[in-house]
Amino acid sequence: MRAPTAVVADDEPMLRAQLVDSLASLWPELRIVGEAAHGEEAVRAVAGERPDIAFLDIEMPGLNGLQAAAQVKGLAHVVFITAYHQYAVEAFERGAIDYVLKPASEARLRETVERLKQRIGQPLPSDEAMRSILARLASVLGKSDPTRLRWIQASVGTQIRLIPIEDVLFFQSDLKYTRVVTRDGESLIRKTLKELLEELDPATFWQVHRATIVNSAAIAHVVREDDRMTITLRHGSARLDVSRTFAHLFKSM
């Protein structure tokens, strides 16, 4: 059997090193294949290394741990590193997500290791379960809802590009891929429009066609020509058709 692998993300180098050393002592077979000091770096490390486990500090600059977990769901089992009091973390769904309190005590970390040994090789929590858990944690811990997308992971050649969600002008899908269009160009992702709609903020991103979601902040104006309605964007030359099903979005324009 191959050795289990993990990525450890914590913006405090000494605490990150302490956790790595403790894991080496309690679980010698575990290979640390990546370390990260902030949320975006953690997402890149998990997407690139595809570890079995992602240890994510809740308080990190950029993307916090909850937001990073929302980005990497479906790729690794998640363990949160947190300084919150134990009563606050009762909101964790221990059957799906575990946690380690800072500073990590050997006894508590040993419990986590034993649970992880049983969990590796088992199916990862479903996207729906992760969204529910993360939203509940965000509520309890006073964070913004991490289940709303803040970044898009898109493939550009052999690289993975992180695109801030506010930079997206529109999404447009075909049978296999979804185009992510920004002022700087376009990329491809494998998320369907249905999946995107579950994660995007509906106040900002509007479905205007069965194959198109547009950032409402990017709309310059809408043109009506007979039975046809077309969106002109503030940037770029693209014109987006609005189907009759979604024409009500612009009834006051």
Description:
With 253 residues, the protein is of the alpha/beta class. The chain has six helices and 15 strands. The strands form four sheets. A five-stranded parallel sheet has the order 2-1-3-4-5, with helices on both faces. The chain has a five-stranded antiparallel sheet with strand order 10-9-8-12-11, with no helix packed on it. Strands 13-14-15 form a three-stranded antiparallel sheet, with no helix packed on it. The mean pLDDT is 86.
Describe this protein with a few key phrases.
253 residues; alpha/beta; Rossmann fold; OB fold (Dihydrolipoamide Acetyltransferase, E2P); 2 domains; five-stranded parallel sheet; 6 helices
Uncertain segments: none
Report Rg.
21 Å
How many runs of DSSP E, i.e. beta strands? Answer: 15
Question: For the report, how would you describe the main beta sheet?
Answer: 5 strands, parallel
Give the strand line-up of the largest sheet.
2-1-3-4-5
Domain tally: 2
Helix content: 25-40%
* Class of secondary structure makeup: alpha/beta
**Beta-strand residue percentage:** 25-35%
Number of helices: 6
Any idea what the shape is? elongated
**CATH-defined topology of the largest domain:** Rossmann fold
- The H-level CATH homologous superfamily of the largest domain, spelled out, is Response regulator
CATH class of the largest domain: Alpha Beta
